[in-house]
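Obj: model holo form, ligand = magnesium ion.
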Amino acid sequence: MTAASSARQILTSLHEVMASRTHAQAKLNQVVETIGEALDSEVCSIYLLREGMLELFATRGLNQAAVHVTRLGVGEGLTGTIAQNIETLNLAEAATHPEFQYRPETGEESFHSFAGVPIVRRERSIGVLTVQHAEPRKYEEVEIEALQTTAMVLAELINNAGLVDAEELDRLPEAHSGQVIIDGLKLVKGLAIGKAVFHQPRVTIEQTVAEDTEAERERVYLAFDRMREQIDNMASQAEFGVDGEHEQVLETYKMFAYDEGWSRRINEAIDSGLTAEAAIERVQQRTRQRMREIQDPLLQDRMHDLEDLANRLIRIVSGQLGTAAQKGLAADSILVAKNLGPAELLEYDKRRLKGVVLEQGSLTAHVVIVARAMGIPVIGRCSNIRGLVREGDEMLVDGDAGKVTVRPSSGVLNAFEARFARSKEKKASYAKLRDVEPFTRDGERIQVMMNAGLRDDVAMLAMTGADGIGLYRTEFQFLVSAALPQRERQARLYRDVLDAAKGKPVIFRTVDIGGDKSLPYISSDNAKEDENPAMGWRALRLALEREGLMKAQARALLEGASGRELNVMFPMVSEPWEFDAAKEVFEQQLAFLRSRKHKLPTAINYGVMLEVPSLAETLDLLLPKLSFISIGTNDLTQFLFAADRANPMLAERYDWVSPAILRFLRRVVQNCVGYPVDLGVCGEMGGRRLEALALLGIGIRRLSITPAGVGPIKELVRKVDTREIGQAMREWLANPPPDMRAALQAWAQEREIEVE
Ligand code: PEP
Ligand code: MG
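Output (holo structure tokens):
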């Protein structure tokens, strides 16, 4: 039996049931019989939400006396768990599940296997459909799929019969009044005030069972054509026209839009008897579930793109078109959505769109990358935000703290407005420093550079007046691509970055992928088994083994920088030979390009990241070969303290301003004396004022930091006398005070230097 034929068989019977003139209870009774028979299950039951409880509404196989008597709370027992998590359960032995609860009145003790699916309306469980079997066996996938399809149809039947009233659905954990504060995930920093706008007026699927399968197929074909046309058009629009990350996003879209597998699955769902809308939704539900099982963050991000497209397709097919973007924003707005595709975000009027709040969202999602480029604060993982907010509600978005306030009280609103005004003033004062060169009080010129990784980041160079890009993380292009970026594409990005930098230096770091930044298209059995990904097969270790990858990047960098100076830096160099090997790859590519009479870079400067402590011990061997060293304190400190930088339990345990770190770094500074090598720091540490002060004190004269830090650090630099802080540091590092941070704070306070 195929999924389509079993579902079809059930749907045909259900269609008759729904069309019959009997009352709702009789229909449900017929439904449980039909399904039980089709799946050869002794038991089939339907539980529906009534007064906040799941009530047994109909059953075949359990005691009829239990109907309308057995009631379970949402989250209670297996049925309640299914409703709460909106998730399918399929168990060979029900009693082994930790949530199992036995209800004697049902007489279910003789049944072992259990499967249940949620009945969903407007993304909430309104009931649960279960089957039970005497033999302990797991239900097969086709059977589960048939159940899920049935549950969709049941949702329609239940709705039409008014079995679960709308109020039940609207009964939310919070009333629609009063202030609510929600904690979420900080995705893009910044503050915003505006009125709540729902990205998507909900598309409710009104009919699930098809009258005419061929007509439904035709509707889907037309919708696919239209969607593909829209995607192709987007490519020619201005926003997407400037190639870059957006172009890559678009490629992922195209990949899905033209994906044969996707359209085939929708077609199969139509074969089973569903309408076009229901078929698309059905396939989407299934994909969502698979993704939940796989739990791969990168794939989940791609999943959001697919959701975006599926929503588009349903809207087209149902004629329920129009997102809030198409209607236009009337006032300063905070966009509220479950998730958002990057293309959808770009459809909004940037002058009115002030902030975005998502129920899902993750740092590497395309939409977040685009929002960052647009300068719009984003908060993610605000569960049930769409349940708590009404269209038009006042909202405060605090992307710095990851907080959303809905319907703020007047006190909270005033305080937020004051903070907002101060942050605008502060930003304006930093903007004034844009063209001011960062000289210290004693006349030392400090290099304040910025870190970047996306094409749009480069615009910040001009806005902040940074001295250049001290760290260009080339792996970002790889992370936002659905497939390995081709050499030409890499070269184009590098050329564009250099163009945009207008002669300011850019240091390109070769890819730091692998380990936790793994890519679906670069896999190794080894990487999957890495128990300590930060110390694993990553960065240069991976690149030197994946020679093709390294060669392509080397060529791309050489081509991208033709006619200009190229600065290349290798990540995670642990021993000098790794630098030699990496440089050799570049030299070979250079020789090749030379032999082909290509225009070459005017000069190539090689450097390394110092982020593995072992390298500090062999610097003397390497220094004569280098033009620059950049200390990656993010990785370096995790290795020095043996404290995983991604572990939140350790996030605050060790201080960057500690004798261990500062002595280590000072030794590196001293070891570099006498060599014509530029030394700088490019970890997050350098972007924080107190830490930057300490770094100036041990002799660091170049910092590469997050763009938002450039203004504040320039301001700091101009207040510092390096001789003074140098002297203080020498004393503290010889005889460390009990609290180094406090000592530095006091020192700064005496001189009225703001360090927080
Ligand atoms: C570092 O390790 O300090 C660094 C700048 O590189 P990344 O954060 O990309 O590892
Ligand atoms: Mg690093």
